[in-house]
Design brief:
The protein is α/β, with parallel strands linked by helices. It has helices spanning 22-32, 49-58, 71-77, 83-88, 107-118, 136-148, 160-172, 187-191, 235-242, 251-257, 259-266, 274-281; strands at residues 8-14, 37-43, 63-66, 80-81, 93-97, 100-104, 129-132, 153-156, 179-182, 196-199, 223-226, 246-248. Strands 2-1-3-5-6-4 form a six-stranded mixed beta sheet, sandwiched between helices. Strands 9-8-7-10-11-12 form a six-stranded parallel beta sheet, with helices on both faces. Helix 5 (107-118) packs across helix 6 (136-148) and helix 5 (107-118) crosses helix 10. The longest helix is centred in the middle third of the chain and has 13 residues, at 136-148. The structure holds 2'-monophosphoadenosine-5'-diphosphate (ATR). 2'-monophosphoadenosine-5'-diphosphate binds next to helix 6. 2'-monophosphoadenosine-5'-diphosphate is lined by residues 133-138, 157-159, 162, 201-203, 209.
């Protein structure tokens, strides 16, 4: 690590934050490009979040990532937010410039970059997208897919009220809505003609229950993506691949969402490549 009197410092705010792979990822890039800087984990309780952000700006940090549970609170501490953050309703990247706090959300960007990198032939306009889940991740995916030009999004969630409120808040935040709420009871119709299926729930993650969905009604032409990346090869991806669907794993979303922050904080656009994937997986 190179640290001088003019080092650029960034970090990740979360509670807890010890699970975050962002320090490993950003410090690897700093080392790879020989940059005078550091990226540190910042465990911050929810009640201290706002004062912590102000303090970081005063301390001369160049920025920070924001993770669970602070992403919505981060929207409120910013002097200015990007349209992506406003439409998603959450901030995951902060830029401190002359004590001015700018908030961005790069999750939608990371998701779509990963999809196109993993399957360049996939065409957003070719048919409906099915999203499982209605939490923070699903919100970012909806915005990304609407921008990419999917003709329709079918949202399926255990708690229907949460899917309803996601659709409501997305429409209030200035998104053009082509969203339908599907139900597990109507799963075959939800899958019909789908061009994409994404798991945006925590099911299938190590230590969580299995997703356990029946893919028999899903066209084999549909692309299947899981935002879960621990394990990298989820049961969903294995089942989809075995029946002939193209699949994209979730690790690339984590890597690509970090690119805009790193670029602006440290003045270097970092590469997302196989060596980086192996390094982050080795954590
Ligand atoms: P994130 O910000 O990562 O999206 P979240 O907001 O906690 O996390 O959302 C988790 C998603 O996984 C939700 O869609 C949740 O469904 P509910 O809205 O019904 O809670 C879904 N999820 C989590 N555990 C689940 C389970 N055991 N069965 C079905 N869905 C589950």
């Amino acid at each position: 690590m190179i640290l001088s009197g003019t080092s650029r410092i960034a970090g990740v705010l979360g509670w807890p934050v010890s699970h975050s792979r962002s320090p490993r990822l950003h410090n690897h890039w700093l080392e790879r490009y020989g940059i005078d800087g550091a990226y540190i984990p910042l465990p911050v309780r929810p009640e201290s979040f706002s004062s912590a952000v102000t303090a970081l700006a005063s301390l001369g940090f160049c920025g920070a990532n924001v993770t669970v549970p602070h992403k919505e609170a981060a929207l409120r501490v910013c002097d200015e937010v990007t349209s992506s953050a406003r439409r998603i309703g959450a901030v995951n990247t902060l830029f401190f410039e002359e004590e001015h706090i700018l908030g961005d959300n790069t999750d939608a960007y990371g998701f779509i970059q990963n999809l196109f990198e993993g399957c360049p032939q996939w065409q957003a306009s070719a048919g409906p997208a099915v999203i499982l889940g209605a939490g923070g991740a699903a919100r970012a995916l909806c915005v990304a897919l609407l921008d990419a030009g999917v003709p329709e999004i079918r949202l399926v969630n255990r708690t229907k009220e949460r899917a309803d409120s996601l659709v409501d808040s997305l429409s209030q935040n200035g998104n053009t809505i082509h969203l339908k709420i599907g139900t597990w009871g109507d799963w075959e119709n939800v899958c019909a003609e789908a061009n994409l299926l994404v798991n945006a729930t925590s099911l299938g993650m190590s230590g969580q229950p299995a997703l356990g969905i029946d893919l028999s009604a899903l066209p084999t032409t549909a692309l299947v993506n899981d935002i879960v990346y621990t394990p990298l090869e989820t049961d969903l991806l294995t089942t989809a691949r075995e029946r002939g669907n193209r699949v994209v794993d979730g690790l690339g979303m984590l890597l690509h969402q970090a690119v805009p922050g790193f670029t602006r904080w440290f003045g270097q656009t970092p590469d997302v490549d196989e060596e980086l994937r192996r390094f982050v997986l080795g954590a």
